[in-house]
Design brief:
The complex is a heterodimer of chains A (329) and B (358). With 329 residues, chain A is α/β, with parallel strands linked by helices. Helices cover 34% and strands 20% of the residues of chain A. Chain A has two domains: 182 residues, Rossmann fold (3-Layer(aba) Sandwich); 131 residues, Rossmann fold. In chain A, the strands form three sheets. Chain A has a seven-stranded mixed beta sheet with strand order 3-2-4-5-7-6-12, sandwiched between helices. Chain B has two domains: 323 residues, Rossmann fold (3-Layer(aba) Sandwich); 33 residues. Helices cover 47% and strands 9% of the residues of chain B. Chain B contains 15 helices and seven strands. A five-stranded parallel beta sheet of chain B has the order 1-2-3-7-6, with helices on both faces. In chain B, strands 4-5 form a two-stranded antiparallel ribbon. In chain B, helix 9 links the parallel strand 2 and strand 3. Chain B is globular and about 75 Å long. Classes of the chains: A alpha/beta (329), B alpha/beta (358). The complex binds thiamine diphosphate (TPP) and magnesium ion. The site of magnesium ion (MG) has 6 residues of chain B, from strand 4. Chain B: This is Pyruvate dehydrogenase E1 component, alpha subunit. Chain B: Keywords: Oxidoreductase, Pyruvate, Thiamine pyrophosphate. Chain B: Its cofactor is thiamine diphosphate.
């Protein structure tokens, strides 16, 4: 099969469709996922084509959805559940932290939970409160969870297939501002293993490290820097857990300078973890401290103010400017 | 639990039928009070229409309409006294306005300027809750605190049919019943949670019937019948005030419009179903009744319409005015004293803004 233009919503839909078709144990459920096809239409047509036993709406209760997924996984199924928005996953937090993440460890690996929790996440869509949270740190901080955040439509397809096929629970963070953007997707290429970052743009002068919705922002910044004579590379993590130290550090060692870009508030964040790891591993190669460009340490602002919160090209380039270039010459 | 209690929790109470005739055995509502209620219904309807127009013009980020549910919106506010509290959801803009809050202040949230535009303490109206059912526990807390302080405050806690599936709904009902908290849980059963029909939320005989399991009274009421709602909710408020504890009231109503302007209800429900509910419009029957008893004539109708138009014009002007959103405000309210980190970040944003302005 050759490449096809599709949106991220369609790419995820295709991944679900192919997984349901190929594996009888895959079931998709959540709020509004069946008849409506999801509020973002990600599950559009799946209920129609595969029926109620494979794709179904649940009562409105996130703890119920994830808790039931645990039981179904214990009994041989591969549940792929949808949390309607990032902030509406919080009622399921107890199930995710206490059971989804820990049951494998608790039972010495006797019980494995191949569950995928899909979460439309992050901002940039003008959503009112509770619709734009970047909640990745909660999950990344919880040992036992795999945390994936695709930045391209092709990765959304491939990584979701990998997540569903794997034997461990995955929190799959879908940047909702990407849902309706079209890109080439070739569903026939090999599924990338979860845990490998990818160099989206090689660069000689500094390395931007990003994931999910921040990757295109980092690429735009690199594009802009190039016109100003600075060659910035961009690494797309793809998965936050497992973290690909090797790819990230290899790039940073080449450039000696790094900026981490993420939408979530910066304090005690994934960006902080990345900066710390890079600092520890690349210290002798660094020309300047690793910088973080993140959201402010405030709740996600109302629609009219979100652009002040989101890390943009200017803030990234300002941070790059502080990386002690005067010593370089 | 008696057979009568079960019946009250399952069969909707009614005073006015769809044509505006008093049902058999019902006592006559006070015509003057009902005419006042009618004015509020017209206001609520006009507000829904105005907000619909504003969202189409892009002046509101989103609008969840309560069209068809205006009797619920008006009744839950009108049965409260000044010192009582209302805990509304995103769909209850009209109820908050009926409580006396300026609709322009209420719309701050949906306009995208701030998360809540009114002072909850001033109006005794909690911020509109979006995370479903979470506010119900806060309502129980406000009520229980009032009892501990020796105050006779009553709390009206609103939620939808879908929200009754959340764990917090269960916890709130149970806490309220155990602590005999002065709370009225008012569920507007509009038959849908976005696309999901009631049958997927619950197979209980009714939502009000759940009250029985918690050990509190439950009542089902025709949610498009203003006097019936005011009677049932008013009695629940009186019980709460008298120290007799919580009540669960379920309104049998219908969401006439899509979930919000962003939703397309034709994907999951038939037009016929909506058409069936249109004649049950909460405004029609009150108008018919008042006209029949001579409490509403053309002149009064014109006066009410004109006043509603004036309100709508004020909403247009207020929502259309230049945005009041201040970027630095995102740092302003998190802590009573800002942390050093926030002060630093605020200064950084200020510097960016100054550069832009320069
Ligand atoms: C905890 C939580 N989960 C999901 C949502 C997303 N959501 C917003 S409204 C809604 C449907 C609510 O239905 P119902 O309680 O019947 O109220 P209605 O909208 O019909 O007034 C959903 C699923 C949410 N706001 N909060
Ligand atoms: Mg509903």
């Amino acid at each position: 099969m050759s490449a096809e233009k599709m949106t991220m919503a369609q790419a995820i839909n295709a991944a679900l469709r192919d997984a349901i078709a190929q594996d009888d144990s895959v079931v998709v459920f959540g709020e509004d996922v069946a008849q409506l096809g999801g509020v973002f239409r990600v599950t559009d047509g799946l209920h129609r084509d595969f029926g109620e036993s494979r794709v179904f709406d649940t009562p409105l209760a996130e703890s119920g959805i994830v808790g039931m997924a645990v039981g179904m996984a214990m009994n041989g199924m591969r549940p792929v559940v949808e949390m309607q928005f990032d902030a509406f996953a919080y009622p399921a937090f107890e199930q995710i932290v206490s059971h989804v993440a820990k049951l494998g460890n608790r039972t010495r690996g006797k019980v494995r939970l191949p569950i995928v929790i899909r979460i439309p996440y992050a901002g940039g869509i003008g959503g009112v409160e509770h619709h734009c949270d970047s909640s990745e740190a909660y999950y990344a901080h919880t040992p036992g969870l795999t945390v994936v955040a695709p930045a391209t439509n092709a990765d959304a397809y491939g990584l979701l297939r990998a997540a569903i096929a794997g034997s461990d629970p995955v929190v799959f963070l879908e940047p909702k501002k990407h849902y309706f953007a079209r890109e080439e997707v070739d569903v026939s290429v090999a599924v990338p293993p979860i845990g490998r970052a990818v160099v989206r743009r090689p660069g000689k002068d500094a390395t931007l490290i990003a994931y999910g919705p921040s990757v295109p922002v980092a690429l735009a910044a690199a594009e802009q820097a190039a016109t100003e004579g600075r060659d910035l590379g961009v690494v797309d993590l793809r998965s936050i857990v497992p973290f690909d130290d090797e790819t990230v550090c290899a790039e940073v060692r080449k450039t000696g300078r790094a900026v981490v870009v993420a939408e979530a508030p910066g304090f005690a964040s994934v960006a902080s973890e990345i900066a710390a790891r890079v600092g520890e591993r690349c210290f002798h190669h660094l020309e300047a401290p690793v910088r973080r460009v993140t959201g402010f340490d405030v709740p996600y602002p109302p629609p009219k103010l979100e652009h002040h919160f989101l890390p943009g090209v200017d803030r990234i380039l300002d941070a790059v400017d502080t990386l002690q270039w005067e010593d370089a010459a | 639990m008696s057979a009568g209690q079960l019946k009250a929790a399952i069969t909707p109470a009614r005073l006015l039928d769809e044509t505006g005739r008093l049902v058999r055995g019902a006592s006559k509502p006070d015509a003057e009070a009902l005419a006042e209620g009618y004015r509020k219904l017209v206001f609520a309807r006009r507000l829904n229409e105005q907000c619909g127009a504003l969202v189409r013009q892009g002046r509101l980020a989103v609008y969840p309409s309560s069209r068809g549910q205006e009797a619920c919106q008006v009744a839950c506010a009108s049965v409260l006294s000044d010192g009582d509290w209302l805990f509304p959801t995103y769909r209850d803009t009209a109820a908050i306005a009926a409580r006396g809050v300026d609709p322009v202040e209420v719309l701050t949230l949906l306009r995208g300027d701030w998360h809540c535009g009114y002072d909850p303490n001033e109006h005794k109206v909690a911020p509109q809750a979006t995370p479903l059912a979470t506010q119900l526990l806060h309502a129980v807390g406000v009520g229980h605190a009032a009892r501990l302080k020796g105050e006779d405050t009553v709390v009206m806690a609103l939620c939808g049919d879908g929200a009754t599936s959340e764990g917090d709904f269960h916890e709130a009902c149970n806490f309220a019943a155990v602590f005999k908290a002065p709370v009225v849980f008012f569920v507007q059963n509009n038959k849908y949670a976005i696309s999901v029909p009631l049958a997927r939320q619950s197979v209980a005989p009714s939502l009000a019937a759940k009250a029985i399991g918690y050990g509190m009274p439950g009542f089902r009421v025709d949610g498009n019948d203003l006097p019936a709602l005011e009677k049932v909710l008013g009695e629940a408020v009186a019980r709460a005030r008298a120290g007799e504890g919580p009540t669960l009231v379920e309104a049998d109503t219908y969401r006439i419009e899509s979930h919000t302007n962003a939703d397309d209800a034709s994907r999951y429900r038939a037009d016929d179903e909506v058409a069936d509910w249109l004649p049950r419009d909460p405004l029609l029957r009150v108008k018919a009744y008042l006209t029949a008893v001579g409490a509403l004539d053309d002149e009064r109708e014109r006066e009410i319409t004109a006043a509603a138009e004036e309100m709508a014009a004020a909403v247009r002007a207020g929502v259309g005015a230049e945005t009041s959103a201040d970027p630095e405000e995102i740092f302003a309210h998190l802590y009573s004293t800002p942390t050093p980190q926030l002060a630093e970040q605020r200064a950084a944003l200020r510097a960016e803004l100054d550069l832009e302005e320069a």
